[in-house]
């Protein structure tokens, strides 16, 4: 209770301070002065989708300091970009202090990636150009000096973010992270494929027959199967454990569900020969590491989160589309006419059409094309 009270007071006093600063605005500096601030208070998968933008900013500004403001519990992931990282939890005095300390001369360029709630801090920071998409709240948009329009035709979410940088390079396959050193505890895995059970939401859970199919396909490759992700509710987990036990005689299976931290999971993914997952955060990190991957889209919009584009040569996404139940048309609160997705935690239909309709023959074809 005391922590909650302190948090409210901390945030409220800062917002009051920022309000009075409107009468005495922070110094404006040139775009070429100071550091570059990338504001990316994003979830795990979204941070990976922003990765190509972040890497390209670093590549185009080798002698300039770049500060990345990211979500507080994703420090291990944010540090992979090898920038100065500020872990942000909520709007408070600590964050303002760290931003001032990181670049006392200010920020000549600020790039906002769907993180409008942090923009009020610029009232207290010398800054120049602010590049951003328009947010859903008009008051969050007042400080934006360069507005980037959302594409009117379908492109992957990562390329929507990439558009924040006016760069001549759009070759996503050449903008990537290198693989990480693998921890000693994984040294005996040999060549392995990851099957990632990465969600606890019923609407996104793997159909068990797909897991059986993948086990059978993995047997042909003679590669170790590594299971990652979270343990599920008892009925589903028990059925999954039974499938694993049935296939242990035919496959080498290492079950690491709920047994890795974030850093270890990223190490495993970056060194895998391939990964298959439903559309969840880790599949976007696999794409950033250029690890061959198959995503079963389920309720997600294949146009937005899939790979029906020339950008990802080592990726496949398989979806059932179109579906009337994919009736959400926003991305980070921005209405986009061509987006059709479903954000329900529980499926309201008798059958999960988005998974039941996935073409099993297509899975097999893509599996052998990518993984051998």
TrEMBL record:
Record has Glycosyltransferase as a keyword: yes
Key words, A-Z: Glycosyltransferase, Transferase
GO cellular component terms listed in the entry, alphabetical order: cytosol
Annotated InterPro entries: Glyco_trans_9, LPS_LOS_Heptosyltrfase
Molecular function GO terms recorded: ADP-heptose-lipopolysaccharide heptosyltransferase activity
Cross-referenced SUPFAM superfamilies: UDP-Glycosyltransferase/glycogen phosphorylase
GO terms for biological process, alphabetical: lipopolysaccharide core region biosynthetic process
Gene3D superfamilies with a match to the protein in the record: Glycogen Phosphorylase B
Listed PANTHER family: LIPOPOLYSACCHARIDE 1,2-N-ACETYLGLUCOSAMINETRANSFERASE-RELATED, TETRAACYLDISACCHARIDE 4'-KINASE-RELATED
Protein name (database record): Glycosyltransferase family 9 protein
Source species of the chain: Candidatus Methylopumilus planktonicus
